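Anyone up for a design puzzle?
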């Protein structure tokens, strides 16, 4: 594999994770960054996709062309870094490569892989022949960040100070093969199921408290797509 001009093997220690909202941003900074520092990254930081000052609300993934520009600008400006994205499939616009085609696929992994492969190919093609493909690691989260919370219903309930909801969370989880299968619908997406039970659910605050209570080990055990992405980041050597 050819190296980009000016790069040395195994020296990419900066990681930028493009995210769509405040919850994911906090999750990266408070949970993933300390973990990934153990794997050789000197800096791990989150950046909201798009210009948050131009939004009516902070966060929310936009059109692919806007996200694409952010990713390309970062890779070109910081040639000693690795870039990744962490965005929900549930609210992903149809402008993202292969999103409309993915809707008809039966399994979450098929949906995610189809989009991830196309995004990766697009970024690599634009960066040119000397670009290291391993510098960009896309991750489409199935179906939402909240899906990860069902990895441990008991810890989830404790983390948001609603232990009485543990049985309800268990019942939801029991209907699906993995938390990453909890489905793609305005009525039944993971966040909608939680809001039906927790009327005052505050995603940025409660979501991260729940993740901290659950822990990465349990999430990785229950969520194979998330685990695969994190494993790629841990094995980041180019």
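Challenge accepted. My sequence:
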């Amino acid at each position: 594999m050819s190296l980009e001009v000016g790069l040395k093997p195994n020296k990419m220690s900066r990681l930028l994770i493009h995210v769509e909202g405040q919850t994911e941003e906090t999750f990266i900074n408070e949970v993933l960054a300390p973990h990934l520092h153990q794997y050789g990254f000197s800096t791990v930081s989150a950046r909201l996709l798009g210009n948050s000052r131009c939004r009516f609300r902070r966060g929310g993934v936009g059109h692919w062309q806007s996200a694409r520009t952010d990713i390309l600008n970062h890779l070109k400006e910081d040639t000693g870094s690795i870039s990744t994205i962490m965005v929900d499939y549930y609210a992903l616009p149809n402008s993202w490569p292969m999103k409309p085609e993915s809707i008809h696929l039966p399994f979450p992994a098929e949906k995610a892989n189809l989009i991830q492969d196309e995004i990766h190919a697009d970024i690599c093609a634009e960066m040119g022949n000397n670009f290291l493909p391993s510098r960009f690691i896309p991750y489409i989260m199935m179906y939402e960040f909240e899906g990860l919370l069902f990895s441990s219903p008991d810890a989830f309930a404790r983390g948001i100070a609603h232990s009485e909801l543990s049985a309800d969370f268990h019942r939801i989880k029991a209907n699906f093969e993995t938390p990453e299968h909890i489905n793609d619908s305005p009525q039944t997406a993971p966040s909608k199921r939680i809001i039906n039970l927790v009327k005052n659910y505050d995603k940025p605050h409660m979501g991260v408290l729940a993740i901290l209570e659950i822990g990465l080990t349990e999430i990785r055990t229950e969520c194979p797509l998330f685990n695969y992405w994190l494993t790629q980041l841990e094995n980041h050597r180019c």
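A detail worth pointing out: The chain has eleven helices and four strands.
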